[in-house]
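Re: beginner question about structure tokens

> Can someone show what the tokenized structure looks like for a real chain? I only ever see the sequence side.

Sure, here's an example I had lying around. Input first:
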Amino acid sequence: MNEKEGKKKRICFVVAVEITIKAFMIDHIRVLQQSFDISVVVNTHNIKFLQPSGVNVTVIPVKIERKIVLFSDVIALIKLYHLFRERKFDIIHSITPKAGLLAMVAGAIAHIPIRIHTFTGQVWATRAGVERWFLKTIDKLLVFCATNILVDSHSQKNFLLGQRVVSEAKAHVIADGSICGVDAEKFSPNPAARKAIRDRFHIHETDITFLFLGRRNRDKGLLDLARAFSKICSEYNNVHLLVVGPDEENMKNQMIDICESCSEKVHFEEYTDVPEQYMSAADVFCLPSYREGFGLVITEAAAIGIPSIGSRIYGITDAIEDGVTGFFFEPAASHDLMLKMARFVENPSLIKTMGEKAKINALEKYSKEKITSAMLDYYRAIASSL
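And the corresponding structure tokens:
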């Protein structure tokens, strides 16, 4: 409660899709609503979608497309401008690139005092030429219009500083990183789920199971993972690969072609709303991405007690301690990835020892309680300046 005005400061979160709020911001909003008046702008037809989660905030539908659709984007920009002028928010906070660009530009024109955007990775990091320049320029415009930038990992912040996209004065990382932290209650070992999933895919309890969980596209390095696993399969009989997540670029068929000689040991699940159960079923998590803002799935797997193998890129380097909680391999180097996978197969005791250390690290540095508390402190600090 603001003593001068006798009312709560008004915060508006702006996102393109419901899942962004549900996956990353729900715990923050649940705590923030006790001290602030919260609104959420999102492309939705269900303004009550947050109520089942115990969050009672104002939801305002605005059609924000995830991809560039010029006419629709201009309409959304105009609607955001009028909304910001009418509601007179004290703070607006955007997440994801398109929502961020529109919200920060509209917020600047509408003279919203504090305009925050959270970076969770850069699409242009893996692009080249004119496309890279264009997408990077959009991020620079976004930053110019924002008053505050949050970055969900220290290594990503350093990357953005090196690329001259953000300044040291404007950019900030909450606690040790991560946009939302790890829910230790949710991400904990589940022996029943482990048995059920392994039985369904005919995986013996003593077999080593590698897991990828996330969106399936080329930037996730899945073809590198398939090549590495195909080599592992040719040398060891007790290995399986479990790939979970929506297939955006026909990755399944391409991976099966690469793993033709051992396709019966590669298992796919299109969608799950219980990722923690698949993590419990696995032994080693693999994230061979070419770009990541922060390896949240690595810390979630770690909370369950499994180590990870990740590409040595910004974002992931925050989430793994090399040789302690997992291994790094050089991006796009499938042979290097195969060698790291082989270390776990040849020495299964590493899974237990590294998994235990990974769990301690994840819960000490990235618990949701720690991140949410730090987020609340951050908001109180910036609100006190108004």
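Each token stands for a local structural state, so reading them left to right follows the chain. The chain has two domains: 10-181+368-383, 191-365.
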